[in-house]
Automatic annotation (TrEMBL):
UniProt protein name: RNA polymerase sigma factor
Region (Disordered) location: 1-26, 116-161
Alphabetical list of Pfam families matching this protein: Sigma70_r2, Sigma70_r4_2
Polar residues: compositionally biased ranges: 116-129
Transcription as UniProt keyword: yes
Protein species of origin: Blastococcus deserti
RNA polymerase sigma-70 region domain boundaries: 48-114
Length: 232
């Protein structure tokens, strides 16, 4: 396989990417795999541009230091380069690349801190209720299991402020950072990176059932954070 340069996480020479400000689109999966195996630098640059920002964010969830996270992503891209010839295509290239990032980040975290992950960090996907049971009608009610008059979720649409204003975004980011590790990663891959359920399962080595539960719990926690914000 032809040698490819070590990838950079910042913009490189625009002449290698086309017009300034433009990014080459990531090729379709089968074409991408063929081109990467052939050592196509343009295809490699396209995926580095498209995937590195979220890879960096995922890595920072483990190492909590930008420079260390940048090293993790650089090492992961080198792993992609060295391993693409052996990649069997059992998952998408994207989920495979993200699994490399996660594995490198875990190794870096273990090496730097020499700490063993606690149950609180990994989080069991089945521990505790997703929503406070008091928000639902009891078994003696005419409509058991339905929302109570005060327990129903409030609508997020608030035209006077806008859902995506700076304060709400900051609140969501804080809430995301507070999620247990696996919930946070599933939400980030599904809702930030736009990965499919299958890709996310492959990247995080999760069963389909666990992925669904973790995603549901993570989204529920974020929604609760917004409800608290609007209830102030």
């Amino acid at each position: 396989m032809p040698s490819l340069n070590r990838p950079a996480l910042t913009d490189t020479d625009p002449a290698d990417r086309g017009t300034v400000g433009e990014r080459a689109p990531v090729p379709p999966e089968e074409e991408l795999l063929d081109r990467l195996r052939a050592g196509d630098a343009a295809a490699f640059a396209a995926v580095v541009d498209a995937w590195s920002p979220v890879m960096l964010s995922v890595a920072r969830r483990y190492v909590h230091d930008r420079h260390a996270a940048e090293d993790v992503v650089q090492e992961a891209w080198l792993g992609v380069i060295s391993g693409i010839g052996r990649f069997e295509g059992r998952s998408s290239v994207r989920s495979w690349a993200f699994s490399i990032v996660i594995n490198r980040a875990k190794s870096r975290f273990a090496r730097d801190t020499r700490l063993v992950s606690s149950p609180e960090l990994t989080g069991s996907p089945t521990s505790g209720p997703t929503v406070d049971p008091a928000r639902f009608r009891g078994p003696d009610d005419a409509y058991p299991g339905h929302w109570t008059s005060t327990g129903a979720p409030r609508p997020w649409d608030q035209p006077e402020n806008g859902l995506l204003n700076r304060e709400v975004r900051e609140r969501l980011e804080r809430a995301l950072a507070e999620l247990p590790e696996r919930q946070r990663l599933v939400v980030q891959l599904r809702d930030v990176q736009g990965m499919s359920a299958e890709e996310t399962c492959a990247a995080l080595h999760l069963s389909a059932g666990n992925q669904r539960v973790l995603l549901h719990r993570g989204r529920a926690a974020l929604r609760a954070a917004l409800e608290d914000y609007y209830d102030r």
